[in-house]
Amino acid sequence: MAERMNNSMEKITEEKWQAIINNDETYNDKFCYGVKTTGVFCKPSCKSRPPKKENVEIFTNADQAILANFRPCKRCKPNNEHLPDNEWVTVVTEYIDKHFGGKLTLEKLADIAHGSPYHLHRIFKKIKGVTPVEYIQQVRLKQAKEQLIQTNIGIAEIALSVGMPNLPYFITLFKKKIGYTPAQYRQMKLMEDKDDGTKK
């Protein structure tokens, strides 16, 4: 076990790094690599966007990567198996839940999940019942509702913090999905709290 851990933590050599960034198929049977930021591992020949060098961990084989809690890439299938669709979608939803405040596009999510945008859109909707874009909106609006109730932060600042810097769009989407503008929603919740206080 100690030997396995040592192998998995080995520093990436220049030779292996060049194999990764050049998608060199001749190295596929020599090692695979995990990307710490996504939790996915790949063959050197994987055509996904190259990771940052400091985020790469080297493994002698797929079993080591799996033991280190990395998931196989959906695109290059480093353990020659498909990642089950529900697990693949879980990778994407977890990423959205953590990074909803940043710029998220279908292309970026597909790249992170190591698949095509079309395939991701189709499988995500099949499993979650909503598209990735709709799920992103749900997460952002849920966070915005919490901030409107729990803080006195301005609406423009809340919009920015949940990844929607276009204030008119944020207000329009909020009203369409929630039934109130952000200001109306905040006022309504304040009134409900006051009513609850007088009833007790």
UniProtKB/TrEMBL annotation:
UniProt keyword Zinc present: yes
GO molecular function: DNA-binding transcription factor activity; methyltransferase activity; sequence-specific DNA binding; zinc ion binding
InterPro entries linked: Ada-like_dom_sf, Ada_DNA_repair_Zn-bd, Homeodomain-like_sf, HTH_AraC, HTH_AraC-typ_CS, Me-P-triester_DNA_alkyl-Trfase, Tscrpt_reg_AraC-type_HTH
A Gene Ontology BP annotation from the UniProt entry: methylation
Gene3D superfamilies according to UniProt: DNA Methylphosphotriester Repair Domain, Homeodomain-like
HTH araC/xylS-type domain mapped to chain residues: 90-188
Keyword Transcription regulation: yes
Pfam families tied to this protein: Ada_Zn_binding (PF02805), HTH_18 (PF12833)
Co-factor(s): Zn(2+)
UniProt keywords, alphabetically: Activator, DNA damage, DNA repair, DNA-binding, Metal-binding, Methyltransferase, Transcription, Transcription regulation, Transferase, Zinc
Annotated PANTHER family: ARAC-FAMILY TRANSCRIPTIONAL REGULATOR (PTHR43280), HTH-TYPE TRANSCRIPTIONAL ACTIVATOR RHAS (PTHR43280:SF28)
Protein name per the record: AraC family transcriptional regulator
